[in-house]
Amino acid sequence: MSSPQSSRTGPLSLLEVHLDRVRRNYLALQKMLTRGADCAAVVKADAYGLGAAAIVPELYKANCRHFFATHASEGMAVRTALGDYEAQVYLLHGPAGATPEDIAHRKLVPVLNTPGDIEYWSGVAKKTGIKRSAVIHIDTGMNRLGLSAAETGWLKNNTDILKPLDVRYLMSHLACADTPEHPKNKEQLEKFRALTAQLGIPCRLSFANSAGIFLGADYHFDQVRPGCALYGINPQNTPSNPMQGVVTLKARILQIREAAAGETTGYGATYRMPTPVKLATISAGYADGYLRSITGNGMVYVGGQKCPVVGRVSMDAIVADVTAVKPLPPVGGWAEIIGQHQTVDDVAAQAGTIGYEILTSLGGRYTRVYAGQETT
Ligand SMILES: *Cc1c(COP(=O)(O)O)cnc(C)c1O
Asked: In terms of pTM, does the model score above 0.85?
């Protein structure tokens, strides 16, 4: 009396990244830049968990020439992904984590976030007699990284320290751009204008993240730095998402079982069947980034039908109530977690988090498939 089985040899879970949609998202953002700003791409954390090695060359083919990583090791991986393609690769966390020789050899441009960073990088340049490229980060209200107003004043009085450097950009980062009406946006914009003018270094300016691009041309300056929007996350708190989803995430049904009214499922026996049900055990859990906090709120789609995830999310598996799916799905059939029916932002809402955390938590167990490469 075994249930029919659709596949025993295929992967248990699949993460498909639609590269054509990543490129389309990039081009859509670039089109918004009416004053000729460069559209960089933020590819930190392995391109938000989706795989920088595959995504970086595709963005290059969409004419992206500026890439932001965080750690030096990530920057080196981006440089490797670029191969012979020429593009700028920046390190958001500065020149730490690698030798100056390695940074120079891989042509990485560190963002200098502190006076200490500036002193260090300037000292390296002076000692070696080679100009070192850099971006200088000025804090305008995030209070996380970058020179404070006082430190910017220090720099203004010590501009000699910049002589050995090739300062490519002055940058800052918005704290509340996903909420367009937030007064902090204008405050940061005005502070950025004032501090960069006060510094008086002739230099290009880099300011907006994905959401900042949507705040309008005043926020674009010479370079924008979108991340999340490239990967299909809605950059702003708006009901409709201007970006295209780029991920399909699905996992196999491992078993179909019947449970009687009053029985429970999962750890802690927290969910009790109100009626007799049919349950599908699905091969994805919190070790796959299906966050445990989704417990009680999760939905998956089986055969195009919305099915609630019942009981606690466990490490490797979730259980969905598939009673309403007609005909009953086969063992080995797919449950869609992200895709046509449900966005990364939907899953994030179920988990009480943001799409960024869902994507960067996806983990290493999915079979990854990259579709829609540009053929050149
Ligand atoms: C992550 C990051 C970005 C990209 O932000 P999104 O909201 O993903 O567009 C831009 N700039 C800095 C400094 C960042 O840390």
From this structure: yes
